[in-house]
Structures are given as C-alpha cells and as structure tokens.
Amino acid sequence: MAAGSDSVLIVGSVALDSVETPSGKVERALGGAAVYSSIAASFFAPVRLVGVVGEDFPQEHVAFLTSRRIDTRGLQVVPGGKTFHWKGAYMGDLNQAETIATELNVFQSFSPKLPEDYRSSGFVFLANIDPELQLEVLDQIDSPKLTACDTMNFWIEGKKDALLDVLRRVDVAFMNDAEARQLTGESNLNRAANEIHELGPRYVVVKKGEHGAVMYCDQSMCFTAASYPVHEVVDPTGAGDSFAGGFMGFIARTGEVNEANLRRAVIYGSTLASFNVQDFSLNRFKRLTIKDIDGRYEEFRRIVHFEPAG
Ligand code: AMP
Questions:
Q1: pTM of the complete model beyond 0.85
Q2: Which of 10, 145, 206, 249 is the least buried, fewest Cβ under 10 Å from its Cβ?
Q3: Distance of alpha carbon 123 from alpha carbon 117, whole angstroms
Q4: Best mutation site among 182, 237, 279 for ligand 1 pocket (most ligand atoms within 8 Å of CB)
Q5: CA dist., res. 103 & res. 308, Å (int)
Q6: Mean pLDDT, rounded, of the chain
Q7: Rounded to the nearest whole angstrom, what is the distance from the C-alpha of residue 133 to the centroid of ligand 1?
Q8: What is the pLDDT of residues 27-67, one digit of tens each?
Q9: What is the C-alpha separation between 227 and 166, in angstroms, rounded?
Q10: What are residue 17's phi and psi, to 5 degrees?
Q11: 308 CA distance to ligand 1 middle (Å)
C-alpha cells in the first residue's frame, strides 16, 4: 500500500461562525465544513486538511485539530488576512439554517497547493466550498479509492457549472434534501437522486436532517436510515459535515468500498451528526470518544432492527 492510502484528504471551509439558535448563541466560534468533517473523520482514520485561514484564527483551534489525527500542513495562514466568517440563525425550523452573512475573506484568493505526500490519499472528501477549489484539489490527487463531495445552496446558485463538473468526477455526492431539489428542480427526492446519479456520482446520499438519510446506489435506493432520536438539539450547524466526515472516515478505516461498509458508513455518519448537534460549535466532539460512538451505533442498530415478514 502506498503511504497515506488509508488517509482521508479533506478540503473545505475553515471558519469562524456566529450562530444563533433557540438554545443560545456563539460569536466567532470554531466552525467550517472542513473542520466538522475532519474532526468526525479523525475518530476513524488519519486526516489531511486543506484550507485557508487568516491571522485572526486562534492558535488554540489549530492545536485542537493537530491534537486529533489531523495533518494541518495543508492549512495555509494568510498574513494579515481575515478568516472566512459565516453568520447564521435557526429560527423555528432547526432543519433549515438562515444565512445572515457569508464573508469569504481569505477564501476569495485561495488556491490550494497540496503538500506532495497528500496526493496519494486513498479517500478524498470535497467538503462545502467554492466548487472551483474542489476541482483544483481533484486535479492534484493521484488515484484515490473513493472521492466524495458536498455543497450548499450558495454554490448551487452562484457556481452551478463548476459544481456540475465536480459531480461528473466524484464517486459519492452528499446533499441535503433541499439542495437535491434545488439542483435538479425535481420535487420528488427519488427522482432528484436519480438525476444527480446521471450527472456522474455512483452513490448519492441525501441527508434529511432529523428525518434521517437515504443512500442511492446506481439507479435505486439501497439503504434508508432514520436519524438517531436526539431530545435536545442545541445547534444543528455542521450536522451534514459531521455526517460526511464520519462516513468517509469509517470507509477509510475499513479500506474497502462495498455495500455493507457503505451502509455502516451511513449509520456512523448519522451517529456523528447526532452527537454534533448536542452542543454549539465543536464542543460536543471535544468530549466524545470512540466508545461513545460505538455505543450509540449499537443503540441505533437495535432501534432499526426488525424481523422478517410472517
Ligand atoms: P452544515 O450545517 O453541515 O451545512 O455546515 C455548516 C458549516 O458550513 C458552517 O460551519 C459554515 O462555516 C460553513 N459554511 C456556511 N456557508 C458556507 C459556504 N458558502 N461555503 C463553505 N462553507 C460554508
């Protein structure tokens, strides 16, 4: 095996988030799609992070990332620059974030340059970020076993052509239900997933917030999972990224892309997402262990188990 072929390379936003939910609010807390997904993946496999921050990004956040199995040599720091800032609120509907401000800052002039040894990564996750940057990363990697992407309404509206190019080149597309509908203009989710499959990805995973996730393999639905019943959702930010990071990290740990592992990956993804929403920012992940994760995975299994017909 080439060195690093069990690693997950992740590119995406590294952010300071200001978020308000019915449970409270945080200002300029650690966030970003690449951060949530890297921490989630790091419970299972080594991670290589690609992103950019400004000089205002607190050193303690970098220390937190490196204290997990996350290689941050691909995280550029722009002298005098300002970190990406997202401001969002959840009012009433916890499944739907309302974006109040997106300040791209250092991401506006970012061009990812992968450290040489990152190129051999076996697993690649293009987390939410400008699809043109996602393409630049795809151009720099050798021959990964599995590639996946995520996106959001901001890029579907603003950079649809680049996003379609990304979809042509990845194996897995993660999308939430609203994004799948927005991208295809199709209100029926099964048909929307089929259309996305036709754009390129072999697997389409549609996340439905508190209603679980559905995975389509080739043309048909191959797995559907409820979400874990969390009684107090404090902050849904990063749930989708935690799902995808947990999914990719778990697949990297197994080293093998097959349907049984993909199904387990969906449940691990849902498990990570269910923990993440129990606190603001990355706070719940800071005190999470693999034992907690496996415990909830098993609980999940008991909840969804049922006997054969008859
Ligand atoms: P999620 O709740 O999983 O959809 O992702 C939330 C994260 O996405 C937050 O931590 C934000 O910093 C990040 N985010 C918000 N808008 C964008 C954007 N336009 N591009 C990249 N990341 C974003």
A1: yes
A2: 145
A3: 13
A4: 237
A5: 52
A6: 95
A7: 15
A8: 999 999 999 999 999 999 999 999 999 999 999 999 999 99
A9: 28
A10: -110, 140
A11: 41
Task: Tell me which residue has its CA closest to atom 20 in ligand 1.
Answer: 129
The string of pLDDT tens digits covering residues 273-286 is: 999 999 999 999 99
Q: Is the pLDDT of residue 1 over 80?
A: no
Give Cβ neighbours of residue 255 (< 8 Å, ≥ 6 apart).
Answer: 6, 122, 145
In the block, which residue shows the tokens 């941050």? 72
d(CA 85, CA 81): 12
User: Hey, what are 165's tokens?
Assistant: 């190019």
**Is ligand 1 within 6 A of the CB of residue 86?**
yes
C-beta 32 within 6 A of ligand 1: yes
What whole-number distance in Å separates Cα of residue 239 and Cα of residue 277? 6
DSSP track, 163-232: HHHHHHH-SEEEEEHHHHHHHHT-SSHHHHHHHHHHHS-SEEEEE-GGG-EEEEETTEEEEEEPPP--S-
Give yes or no for residue 246 CB within 6 A of ligand 1. no
For residues 4 and 144, the answer to whether their CB atoms sit within 8 Å is: no
Are 75 and 50 in contact by the 8 Å Cβ rule? The answer is yes
Contact between 125 and 8 (Cβ < 8 Å): yes
The pLDDT of residue 2 is above 60: no
- Band (pLDDT 50/70/90 cuts) for residue 219 is confident
